[in-house]
Amino acid sequence: MIRLTVTAQEGHARCGILHTRAGVIDTPAFMPVGTQASVKSLTPAEVRETGAQIILNNAYHLYLRPGVELVERLGGLHRFQAWEGGILTDSGGYQIFSLASLHRVTEEGLTFRSHIDGSEHFMSPEKAVDVQQRLGADIIMSFDQPIPWGATRAQTIEATERTHRWAKRGRDAWNPETGQALFGIVQGGFEEDLRRASAEELVAMDFPGYSIGGLSVGEPKDVMWAMLDVTTPLLPADKPRYLMGVGTPTDLVRGVLQGVDMFDCVLPTRMGRNGTAFTWEGRLNLRNARFETDPEPLDPRCPCAVCRTFSRAYLRHLLKAGEILAIRSVSYHNLAFYQQVMHAMRQQIVAGTLAAWAEAFLTDYRNM
Amino acid sequence: MIRLTVTAQEGHARCGILHTRAGVIDTPAFMPVGTQASVKSLTPAEVRETGAQIILNNAYHLYLRPGVELVERLGGLHRFQAWEGGILTDSGGYQIFSLASLHRVTEEGLTFRSHIDGSEHFMSPEKAVDVQQRLGADIIMSFDQPIPWGATRAQTIEATERTHRWAKRGRDAWNPETGQALFGIVQGGFEEDLRRASAEELVAMDFPGYSIGGLSVGEPKDVMWAMLDVTTPLLPADKPRYLMGVGTPTDLVRGVLQGVDMFDCVLPTRMGRNGTAFTWEGRLNLRNARFETDPEPLDPRCPCAVCRTFSRAYLRHLLKAGEILAIRSVSYHNLAFYQQVMHAMRQQIVAGTLAAWAEAFLTDYRNM
After folding, report:
1. Residue B318 and residue A36: Cβ atoms within 8 Å?
2. What is the pLDDT of residues A276-325, one digit of tens each?
3. CA atoms within 13 A on the CB side of B357
4. Which value does ipTM take for this structure?
5. Which parts of chain A have pLDDT scores under 70?
6. For a FRET experiment, which of A112, A179, B27, B228 has its CA 20 to 30 Å from that of B221?
7. What domain range is B246 assigned to?
8. Final residue of a domain: which of A216, A240, A265?
9. Active site residue B264
């Protein structure tokens, strides 16, 4: 169903091959986010060109629109969006808490109103697994209760323990024979002992892989790294580890150094729509007047199609003129850049030189 | 500089090769519109893939933003937007009348305020030619005074005669040694005798090509065809004829039957952004509920990349979800469809079967 072959290790960092029913994925891997079955502004062929082998879709969004029945009828998520690589879906818990309105939390599940039309829905751990299996994702997530930064210890304990019970219920509802791999999600808020307990509890349930949830939700970066630091050593070495919703290029590097295998984040496409490009020297905002006549590509070191074709001056013009091609181009470049960073790290781990490379990267990389 | 080789003729319709400084263009040709140096939502490579050999840019828009100096500095329009095919610019007269505010018409030229920032500008026939030559277009337009549908005969005469004087001034200002071809624009409003007089006046000035302006501005279709009918027979057989701003697929067919060689229109991209696809059977609006579960491509007879990849159901989902990929996909398909119509007509003229083909097309093609 899913199997991680670790091919090289340096410190906590691992390079490997994740075997999935949709093919192999080189790890550490970055997954572009295709919230509504589309990585915003790009075609599946372009997403593949950037180097992505697996993307993330949001079960919450797809459950509401176009609906599970329609996706099933059109042959499942791969065929629906014409994506031949891997697909991971999140379970929807995070989206229900952050996007939906009037939600009600009970032991049974979550009652919420659609952010699209206000219609009322109910989602349980069992239903979340069923929805994701029917959508046809290759890797699916347990249904969890997110814990906001600032929650009390009592609130954190309550939500984390419910997350464990929900993980168990989802695991029982899961049909492994489809080859779809179910990941458990570690919670525990921002308390080291609760994080540890959550990891141990989930590992005892023996999931095919483990997600680290509830981070990058507003807490200081050092708190996030401290939480990750107590979590990853407790996760099985032979199972993939996925740090949900993270992050910036420097976050990816720090995460890999701490033993993370998989990442997803909307940042490269969201920043792309805003005209901010990621480069080997840091962020570059095309709205900055100093790019007005700049004939250079977004990143002179980047071999992507956008950097081979367009100047900063042209892209800046498109952005100011409100042209979609600006959004497409910067989104494409940013995803290509993210994949280049992942590729570089995989190579460095194999060569045993990641530590030095990461130090140089974290020094050179800055906001411009 | 520019030379039309007519390779086949059937009735008034002609098939040919237009030799330009940017290479050859098969005629009759449809030119996608890249108003602000970008065919909306598409890359130059995609525009080329659809079959386009020449695009239209708007001198008015580019003069205001990013400005002539910047485009020159970045190597001219071809290099700026990374388009290797032909480029035609319109002179800006139409845009100044339709978009700019507080314009003042004098014999010298037009004073207007930018629709972007309200700044005041002056454009003369000489300056319009200079701007287009500096932008680096391969085919440029005389500066004309558009005549609205509903203008009086006196107004029509005044504007048409000024257009002739401006055409002469532009011709005198033009530097033919760059290889950039200047077209005269026939006006004459909606009066047959004035149309004839305008065509004769401009032909006497001996331009490399002739545009038919002032049509498709709100008049009934039969009036438009009547105006075209009196104009094209007066234009030299060995010079290209360009019907500005036209039109729908059926307009293209009727225009070719009347001897037009070149067309441009925002319709395929504008309708694409709106979710309306052109097909061999007519228009198809993806918002229509009957496409909700439709696994067929936009047009089962279309070989374009979008029709090979996505279903109507998926594209409808993207459109409803506000995803840019919907806009891109329908725009791309529409431009590919337009080029397929032009290609078919060129083949039919060579085979001497255009009349029958056109009759069948005009019968089958309908709004869906």
Report:
1. yes
2. 999 999 999 999 999 999 999 999 999 999 999 999 999 999 999 999 99
3. 20
4. 0.97
5. 102, 367-368
6. B27
7. 3-265
8. A265
9. yes
